[in-house]
Amino acid sequence: MKTYGLIGYRLGYSFSKGFFQNKFEKEGLTNREYLNFELDQIDDFPAIFQTNDHIAGLNCTIPYKQAIIPFLDEIDEQAAEVGAVNTIKIIHDNNQIKLKGYNTDCYGFEHSILPMLTTKHQKALILGTGGASKAIKYVLNKHKIDFISATTKNELAPNELSYHQIDERILKEHLIIINATPLGTYPKVDNCPAIPYEFLTSDHVLYDLVYNPEETLFMKKGKSKGAATKNGLEMLHLQAEKAWKIWKE
What we know:
Blueprint: E1 2-8, H1 15-26, E2 32-38, H2 48-51, E3 55-60, E4 74-75, H3 77-82, E5 87-93, E6 96-102, H4 105-113, E7 123-127, H5 132-142, E8 146-151, E9 160-162, H6 168-173, E10 176-179, E11 205-208, H7 217-223, E12 228-230, H8 233-248
Parallel strand pairs: 1-2, 1-3, 4-6, 7-8, 7-10, 8-9, 10-11, 11-12
Antiparallel strand pairs: 3-5, 5-6
Helix pairs in contact: 4-5, 4-8
């Protein structure tokens, strides 16, 4: 039996667990299982190997995508540049294990949003500055798309602005708007980022990392102005498939 799993905090419903259990069943992989490893603190991470010696791969979710890095033996170049890990390959060698970290969020986001963009989409507004925004910034930099980030913090870092500074001019310049906050996630479906939606147009692309509900209030407000919209479900599927490929290599 090979075990795969997800490490995180208070996981509740797990997209990853459902996705991989369904994948194993469809592909007839009866000798595979996927477990949730809920960790109250990241220091509990090494203990999961004491009770399960056939772990072959792990996914890592918030709030540990950065905190997991010191526990790894090696980190992929892309993950190092992003500064976050969401996939861990476990390499077994002579009764020793080696842990290598990757970031497949970049792959998922890149291949999900690029088909929506045209030559007019040169600047992006990222809503949120937390861990979820790291992969987004990496992809935007890779494709030479300028961006600014909206934050609720009092002290602004370079390339950041407060939500109250987002006006018609900002939205006219930034035709890509990405929600990298949890606002609008079920069950609080009546929430959405505080931006002036009245200034959105059919030239805008609104991308929401939230995938439950299928259409968030953020997306509905954009769609009412003719904007193209997409949720984060395709990104999740793509990053999961990329993780599976890494584990099998």
